[in-house]
Every structure is written in C-alpha cells, then in structure tokens.
Specification:
It is built from 20 helices and 14 strands. The protein has a single domain, classed as Cytochrome p450 (Orthogonal Bundle). The strands form five sheets. A five-stranded mixed beta sheet has the order 1-2-10-7-3, with helices on both faces. A three-stranded antiparallel beta sheet has the order 4-14-11. A two-stranded antiparallel ribbon has the order 5-6. The protein is of the alpha+beta class. The protein is globular and about 60 Å long. Helices cover 50% and strands 12% of the residues.
Length: 428
C-alpha cells in the first residue's frame, strides 16, 4: 500500500487541527469521510505538526486503548501539539513533553500506583454515600434556574456551576474560590477560544504555550498552599489524600501532587458541565425528545449516557507506539504518534444506529467518551450520578423548553463542548 493511499487529504488534516472546526461541527464531516474512506490514515502537515495516525473507528480506538504496553501515553505529548509548541514545552521542562504529569501522562508502573491513591473515592459504592449531598446541590441549582423567570443561559447559570460545586466540595476547595477554579479551567481547556482563553497579544504557538504555562502556575500556587495546609491539618477530603499520599512508601512529589490537583480540579467538572449542557441542548432542539423523557423518568439514565456520547467533551488523546505493529492491515512503526478520535468513534455507523440522532432510549449505548482500558475515566460514576440527579430534579419542574438564541460550542481541539445554550422555559 502506497503512502499516497494512507495519507489523509491536506484539507481534512487541517480540519483536525483547527479549533473552529470543533465549534461549528465541520469536524464531524471530516470524521465521517475518514470512517468511510480512510479510517486509519496519516495526517502529514509538514513544517507544522509531526505526522500522526488518525484513528476514527470505534473498534480501532478500543483495540489501541486495551494495549497499554504497545501504545503508551507518556512518551510524547498526550494531546495534539504543534512542533513549535512541543519544542517550547521541552525547553521549559528540561526535555519533558509534559507541562503536567497527571494520570493522563502516566504509564505502568506509575499509572496504577497513582490511580490507586484516589480510586476508592470514585468507586460507585462510595459515591452512593454522596447522593443526598449532591441532590441538595442539584435542588439549589434548579431553584436558581427557575428564579431567572423563564429564560437563562443554561451553560452559564446551571451546567458550569453545579458540577463545579460538587467536585470542589469533594476536593476541599472553599466555595469562595470556586469562581477562580472555573476561570482557570476555562483558560486551560479553552485556551484557543477567544471568549474563554487567557488573552495574549499575538495568538501564535509560542504565546499560547506561555499562556497555558501561566495558567498552570496559577493552579500550582493555589494548590501549594492547600498542600501545606492539609499536611499540617488533615481533613476528610480529596485534597488531604493527595497531599499526604505515598508512592512506594515515599511521599508523592510536589510536581506530581500539584498535577493531580489540576486534573481533578479541571476534568472533575468541565467535562460533566459540557455533557450536562449537551443534554439540555438536545432537549431544547427536540420537543419530542423532551416530552419522551419527561413522561418516562426511567429514561433519564439513558439521557445521561446519550448526552455523554453526543457531546464527547474529550475529543481526542494521543498514543505512541512502542514497537512495530499492524492495525487494519497498515504497518505502524515504533515511535509513531496516533490520535484517538473519540468523537468519531461515538458516531461510528457500525456501532450506533442513527448515530447522528440523539436518542435517550438508545440501548445498548457503547460510547467511549470515558475512554477504555487502564485509562478509563476515574470519575465516570460520579459524573453520571451528578447528571442523573440534576435531571431528576429539573425535568419534573419544567413544562417546556426551547432555544432563546443560538447555542454555541467552544473552539478547542482537545476538550470542547457547549459554551452557550440560551433557553426559554415554562415551569410546570
């Protein structure tokens, strides 16, 4: 097979790296073409990005995700990064491709050890004990929404704040610091969005990388104080677990502790916020879907899973091959970089009937929004519980819902979702 057959057309490859394409849904047209015509191809954007394989089929994403020794996380950047940005990061870190070293950037033997530090907090049996507490937070969020008088931006007024408050309570961040955590999260994940990212004079790769580093430094300075306080005065919260954690009998390093805080304090709410907003987007868009779920509350769990599939907040992760191998009849060489396109896998026509239709009664729903294998999202049970509880409290209080303006997605290649869902509603 020739390299020309493997190579993805440049116009499609540029879509994969264009943050705006993830906001205006052009990315789904690219994914669809690739699934049909070149499901495992190479994007070659010479002078800008190292070549990378683009994995768009559900089965291939699962196959790579289950082989952690063959396809590693930590050897190269775990998110798509330009050559210029990668060079700058390595200069900043003394050679490492990572500005943070969280579970996402780890491989065995470190990954299972660090995951075990907090895993018990997120197991389904343990989070059941949080249900009453979370329901109280959800009830408060619903009351605030209803108090708007029938019109609000569901993202700003509900979806952003509710999961944020839940995870910050678990982590141990005081309520008065939640706005700061929200701002830093948006600046980190939305660094390429003009409304969310930290403002830079010239938005080139160098300045954007410096902006991201500055955001991380703000996180580190905040959580360094939390670490010192929890080591002096331990509490029953996740911050104490991280601050006092030990790996192989030795205290967790400062850098890895701070990285741990960042992943919990960002991914612990932002992706849930996006999926929650995605659910309301779908209900406002389809009165029939709203009526179906409202009349049958048993479908709320299905609504949650479908919203997570539909939105797929984490659009991709990168993997690096550790040895020569073969997939879908194509030879992957040691050191090759692979982009796992979760949002494409979640629209795979071979797995999901009517994959572009939002269906709360979709069953089975084998979405891969939480990843798969050893890196399966630690907080998936908590995220689904939060969403389920919110809609259990909200839907009985609504008689109708519709758009009150144009909904919009954020502009980001890595983590993206609704940033504006203006709705008009009638209370039941």
């Amino acid at each position: 097979m020739s390299s020309a057959e493997i190579r993805i057309p440049d116009e499609l490859a540029w879509t994969l790296v264009d943050p705006i394409a993830y906001a205006d849904a052009r990315i789904h047209d690219t994914y669809k073409w690739l699934r049909v015509n070149n499901p495992l191809g190479v994007a070659g954007l010479e002078g800008h990005y190292d070549p990378f394989w683009v994995v768009t089929k559900h089965a291939d994403i699962l196959e790579i995700s289950r082989q952690n020794a063959l396809f590693r996380n930590g050897d190269r950047q775990t998110t798509l990064t330009s050559q210029q940005a990668d060079k700058q990061v390595r200069q900043m870190t003394g050679g490492s491709p990572h500005l943070v070293r969280s579970l996402v950037q780890m491989d065995p033997p470190d990954h299972p050890k660090y995951r075990a530090l907090t895993q018990a907090w997120f197991m389904s049996n343990n989070i059941k004990g949080l249900e009453a507490r979370i329901r109280g937070i959800a009830t408060g969020a619903v009351e605030k929404m209803l108090a708007t008088g029938g019109e609000c931006d569901f993202v700003r007024d509900v979806a952003m704040l509710y999961p944020l408050h839940v995870i910050m309570e678990i982590l141990g961040v005081p309520p008065e610091d939640e706005p700061r955590m929200l701002m830093l999260t948006q600046e980190l994940f939305g660094s390429t969005d003009p409304d969310l990212g930290r403002k830079v004079e010239t938005p080139d790769a160098a300045k954007m990388t410096e902006a991201v580093q500055a955001v991380l430094m703000d996180f580190y300075q905040y959580f360094a104080k939390i670490t010192a306080e929890r080591r002096a005065n331990p509490r029953d919260d996740l911050a104490t677990v991280i601050a006092t954690g030990k790996i192989d009998g030795a205290p967790i390093s400062e850098f890895e502790a701070l990285s741990y805080y960042v992943i919990v304090a960002t991914a612990g709410h932002d992706t849930t916020s996006s999926s929650t907003a995605g659910a309301m987007w779908a209900l406002a868009e389809s009165p029939a879907e709203f009526a179906k779920v409202k009349s049958n509350p048993a479908l709320i769990s299905g609504l949650v899973d479908e919203a997570v599939r539909w939105t797929t907040p984490v659009k991709h992760f990168m993997r690096s091959a550790t040895a020569d191998t073969e997939l879908r009849g194509r030879k992957i060489a040691k050191g090759d970089w692979l982009m796992l396109c979760y949002a494409s896998g979640n629209r795979d026509e071979e797995v999901f009937e009517d994959s572009y239709v939002f269906r709360s009664d979709r069953s089975p729903n084998r979405h891969i929004s939480f990843g798969y294998g050893a890196h399966l999202c630690l907080g998936q049970h908590l995220a689904k519980m939060e969403m389920r509880i919110l809609f259990e409290e909200l839907l009985p209080r609504l008689a109708s819902v519709e758009f009150a303006g144009e909904p919009r997605n954020s502009q980001a290649v890595f983590v993206s979702g609704p940033k504006r869902v203006p709705i008009r509603f009638r209370a039941a």
